[in-house]
Design brief:
Elements (H helix, E strand, L loop, with lengths): L2 H14 L1 H36 L4 E5 L2 H6 L10 H13 L3 E7 L1 H12 L16 E6 L5 H8 L5 E6 H44 L1 H9 L4 H36 L4 H4 L8 H30 L3
Antiparallel strand pairs: 1-3, 1-4, 2-3
Helix pairs in contact: 1-9, 2-7, 2-9, 2-11, 7-9, 7-11, 9-11
Length: about 300
């Protein structure tokens, strides 16, 4: 097969169906940009989980005198020194525990004043109203329930709280947004495939006399199909290149410059450029293969070659 002939046929086909080719490029670009965005969002959530789950603690809050009067969990009274030592000893014996630190009521009051000193409630609080607590670093953040089962409802314990539960709500929201993006991506891919099939059929119909002559002179099926398949592949590849550009520009303006989230949200560990660059070959390969396969199966039925 002569490359010059194939390339000339590709150019002719793309020019004849310029409007539909443009629609294919746009739909492929949008769908694959959403595809790449959803992959990057998954990486971002995983990065954030690894960063924050490594820092979360389980807190065992101990009963104080105020709790003994108002909280049913502390009906047996404020925690005693013996109970406090027993809780600490049991925590250190547990295999899931990596580290235990103690926070006194005075320390809790100081931390509260540092964080919420402007709150009207802060002026009415006293150190004896703050709860003592043990802050537990787990070897595996998923093992929170082991601590909760062992100490929840125990004498001297007011409550067991897992900071991971707060983060789970955030990650649940991010995952929901990611799945919504994937749903839109799937719809855009369907639209792109339909446009590709229609574009190939229109192109084949407009050149039916040429393909008929080629069939009569004994041209092979692949020789007849190749220009149409490559037209779709080129249009898809252009769309894939545009999608890659979208991702690069979005990473640059959203995280590094423009919105500059990396500077404004220092507590979030954002994905780097390496995560973006590793997705680009997959997007380009998809943009090339998806239209080519769609055109191949459409032509098998339409041209009957």
């Amino acid at each position: 097969m002569r490359p010059q002939f194939v390339l000339s046929e590709i150019g002719v086909g793309l020019r004849r169906n310029l409007t539909m080719t443009f629609a294919v490029v746009v739909s492929v670009a949008l769908s694959l940009a959403l595809f790449g965005g959803s992959l990057l969002m998954s990486d971002q959530v995983s990065t954030m989980k690894g960063y924050w789950y490594d820092k979360v603690n389980v807190s065992v809050f101990l009963c104080n005198k105020s709790d003994a009067e108002s909280d049913p969990h502390c009906a047996k009274g404020a925690v005693t020194a013996e109970q406090r030592d027993q809780i600490l000893g049991d925590l250190k014996k547990m295999n899931v525990v990596e580290k235990v630190s103690y926070e006194s009521s005075d320390q809790a009051y100081k931390h509260y004043k540092e964080q919420f000193g402007d709150s009207p409630l802060a002026s009415s609080l006293t150190p004896d109203q703050m709860q003592e607590s043990y802050r537990i670093k787990l070897k595996d953040p998923q093992k929170y329930q082991v601590i909760a089962t062992a100490f929840d409802g125990r004498a001297g314990v007011q409550s067991v709280q897992d900071q991971k539960g707060i983060l789970d709500n955030l990650f649940g929201l991010l995952n929901g947004m990611n799945w919504a993006a994937r749903a839109v991506m799937a719809m855009m891919l369907v639209v792109a495939l339909m446009l590709i099939v229609n574009t190939v059929r229109v192109s084949a119909f407009s050149r039916r006399r040429e393909t008929g002559i080629m069939r009569l002179v004994g041209a092979s099926g692949f020789y007849i199909q190749a220009p149409f398949i490559m037209e779709a592949a080129v249009a898809g590849l252009i769309g894939g290149g545009v999608a890659c550009g979208f991702l690069l520009v979005a990473r640059y303006f959203i995280i590094d410059h423009g919105l500059a989230l990396s500077q404004k949200l220092n507590l979030i560990n954002f994905i780097g450029w390496d995560a973006v660059f590793t997705k680009l070959p997959l997007i380009l390969a998809t943009s090339l293969l998806m239209p080519a396969l769609a055109a191949f199966f459409a032509l098998r039925k339409y041209l009957k070659v």
